[in-house]
Design goal:
Layout lengths: L1 E3 H7 L6 H10 L4 E4 L2 E3 L10 H4 L4 E2 L1 H7 L10 E5 L6 E5 L2 E7 L9 E6 L2 E6 L1 H10 L7 H11 L4 H5 L3 H8 L5 H13 L2
Parallel strand pairs: 5-7
Antiparallel strand pairs: 1-3, 2-3, 4-5, 6-7, 8-9
Helix pairs in contact: 4-5, 8-9
Amino acid sequence: MIKTTDMLLEDLNSYANPKSKLSRMVKNGECFPITKGLYETSRNVPAYLLAGSIYGPSYISFDFALGFYDLIPEAVYTVTCATFEKKKKKRYDTMFGTFTYRDVPSAAFPLELVLMQEGEYYYRIAGPEKALCDKLYTMPPVANATELGDMLFDDLRVEETALLELDAEKVEMLSEHYHSTTVKKLAALLRRMKK
């Protein structure tokens, strides 16, 4: 379970020196520091369950979400997350794994998110269409459909069958919120592929 320093000190207020007790708990492997002021009580929690607590507001997207939905064949070990209006990328290297955060447009941020639950943990992840739009938004613009195809199938190694399973109407709706010609071209490509 994720706990802040204050929560843990409150739990330990029956000790003469709660801060010393917390230090001993960390030393003894009873709780594990994630980032400054944030701890996890279990060593074996999958990293992605912690992503939203480390830096936010955020949701899981980009490569990690594309891998989660089997849109790309590679295993993704860095938990990649989207934020908005933060103006700079963030990276956290923790004992649980590496987390990266980068902006997407504010208008696109709240759209097509899925709230997932695993045990007592909740996390937000972009739907497959949103994850791909987020990823394309961060890449250099393409001039035409051929370049987009090269980017999708060669650079990102998106599976064509997985691409065909995406909801073209969702991509169309999302494309209005990115101000990205590449995302608009994706919407057009999906329309053509599904005819």
